[in-house]
Every structure is written in structure tokens, then in C-alpha cells.
Amino acid sequence: MRILAIETSCDDTGIAILDVKNKKFTVLSNIVSSQKIHKKYGGVFPMMAKREHQANLVPVLMQSLKLAKLLNSPDDKHRVSGVSHRAKFKIVEKILERESELLKQLQPFLKKYKKPDIDLIAVTHGPGLEPCLWVGVNFARVLSYVWDIPLIPVNHIEAHILVNFLSTRSDLVDRFPAVALVVSGGHTQLILMNGVGKYKIIGETRDDAAGECFDKCAKILGLGYPGGPIISQLAKELKKDIYLQNRRSSTLQVQLPRPMIRTKDYDFSFSGLKTAVLYLHKDLKNKYFYTSKYRSIVKELCWEIQQAIIDVLVKKTIKAVKDFNAKTIILGGGVSANDELRKQLKEKIQSDMPNTQYLIPDTALSTDNALMIAVAGYFHRSDTKDWQKIKANANLRIS
Q1: Which CATH architecture has domain 172-360?
Q2: Residue 266: is its pLDDT beyond 70?
């Protein structure tokens, strides 16, 4: 089975092709085009992202098909023509009536190239930014209609979880129950899994998600966007400074709160941490901005921000695993690329529950990509839907 997957939930345009034989996954291609345009604005603008997806989808599709050796060479004998095909493209125009720029690129592509050897198309239909989701959904609907290939809608959050099974030959024996920690810019959730498709959200953020907190704190510190990688890098520099100096005389030891770390539930709250950073940074900036210490202060704030978030995430996750006697911990979402989170969660598992399985994605698969959509599509391969019935759902829930 060959699956073509499409991901446009936010600001990354992704297309991947996955081949599955005897429960073994083989990645034929996985292309991601990241939109750098948002960096200077400090956040993603949905309509701007939609425009970029329209420009990127066809080139990324061609690149992905070519890498997978599935882009059939142009041949005049196979060019689309005739009355029936003109009628078909009238429907294509109707589907893409709100994506005119995409239509301009897609029509010539469909007329020029033959249908590739693909068995299933999977597409993210939520959650995410609605204008972005609709571009990907309508793109997938056109391909499904013109190529007559079954189409399956995929939950973006579930895909972040299921991509962890990419290297396991899709063998799920003795994995459940499992607790999945999904941490990204828009979501921070603990999900109890009793099998694929059997989910219950047992905890989630009441305000800001962990990734959102990283971004907002980075903005407060004047570090740019996205915030997570920048804060992580400066935190590493602080640890290196301490190692080289064997002292902390050049830095101020700051302390930030760990919101909800002692509550008996599995919920999170990071808005208060952001507010604490705002006031603490304002005070320290007033005192030290024009001194040689300020750079070190920013590094220490980054270390403390990162550690506060990690402490809460790890504590809540371990509590959930113990309370539900879970056999497996699964980490997913963009923030799962954070080295310290990966390492500290692993260390805690090894010390407190060494028999618990720990699944984490390759760091390249932590952030949004279409390969995770393809994996999820495989596990739900029997749940195909008519292309006319698939819609984007920005607020889609996993349970």
C-alpha cells in the first residue's frame, strides 16, 4: 500500500509518500516547506499562511513524487483532453473556487502528468488554522476526485502520537494502555490510550500551551520567533558557561513558579508562568540592561523558563502513568524536539519505572510533517470517506 499524505494545518506545507508492506513502513519521500515569512511578525498570520500553502503545494507534490520515483514523465499521449475531461475540470474549478492561486498551478499539473501509483490519500482536516486546513483539504479532494483514489481525513494530534510507531513495524502488541504527552504551540494534553482510536483526554492546558508559553516568553525577552528553539539554545549556553566557570558569579539566580505542579489532576496552566517572566524580566532589565550582566541574566531566565515547563510536564506525565498503570509513555508534538524534555523524561522513567516503554519521535518528525499524517492514514486505512464529505475542522478533538 502506498499512501500520499498532505499536511497544511499551520505554517508548514508537507507532502509525504509512505509504502507499507507486511506491516513494515518504508518512507519514499517526506518533504516539508517551512514558511519563514512569519518570523519577522512574531507569529503565524492565517491568511498569509494560506497564501503560502497555495504557492507551495504543487511544487512540493512534484518534488515528493519525483523523490519517490512516482512522477510519471510528461507524455502527449496522456494529456487530459476531451469533453468529459473539460466537465471534470469544471468540478475542479468549483472545489478550488477560493484557492485561485492553487488552481492556476494544479490544473496544468493534472493535465500534464499521469496518475501516480498511489493507493490512498491522507490529509489533515483538523485541528489547526482553518484557512490553512481548507487549502490542504481542497487540494486532497481534487486529487482524490481526478485520480479516483480513496481519501481519508486525519486528526493532526493523533498523527503526532502515531508517528512514534513508524519504526515498530506497526506492531502494537503489549503497548497499551499508554499515556501520550502531546506538547506543541497550540496543545498540551495528556491522553490515555487503550488502542489506536481509543483515546481519552485526561488532562490539558487551561490557558496557554507549552509551546505558546515558550513563544510568548521569548517575545518578552526580545528573542524572536519561534521561541522554543531560541530559549533552548540560550539555556544550553548557560549550562556551558557554568561548566567552564565552575561558578555562577556572573549570573543572578532567578526562580520562576511551576504552575499546577502539585494539583491532583492532570491539567496544566502556563499563563501564570508567562506573567511571572514578564514582571521579573521588567525588574531585571531596569537594573541591569546597560551592564555586562544582562546577557547572562537572559540566559538564566531561558534556563529557568525551560526547566519550569519541563518540571510540570514530567511530573504530570509520571503521575498519569502511575495512576493508570500504563505500559508505555508516548511523546509527541513540536515541543517534543526539546532535548532537555526528552532527556529528563527518559531519566525519570528509568529511575521511577524502568519497565515502562518510552516512545519518542525522531526530532525531524516532532514538528509538523506529512509523514505522520501518512502513518495515521495507514492505521485508519479502512475509514475512507467520499471526497465531497470531508471538511476542515479547526477545533477537532481527539476524543
Answers
A1: 2-Layer Sandwich (3.30)
A2: yes
Question: How far apart are the C-alpha atoms of 48 and 54, rounded to whole Å?
Answer: 10
Give the residue-averaged pLDDT of 289-297.
88
Question: 229, 181, 157: which is closest to 344 by C-alpha?
Answer: 181
The CATH fold of domain 2-161+366-389: Nucleotidyltransferase; domain 5 (3.30.420)
Domain coordinates of the chain in residue numbers?
2-161+366-389, 172-360
- Per-residue pLDDT tens over the stretch 328-348: 999 999 999 999 999 999 999
User: What mean pLDDT do residues 269-276 have?
Assistant: 96
Q: What is the mean pLDDT of the chain?
A: 91
- Residue length, the chain? 399
Using one digit for the tens of pLDDT, what is the confidence trace for 20-57? 998 899 999 999 987 767 666 667 778 888 999 999 99
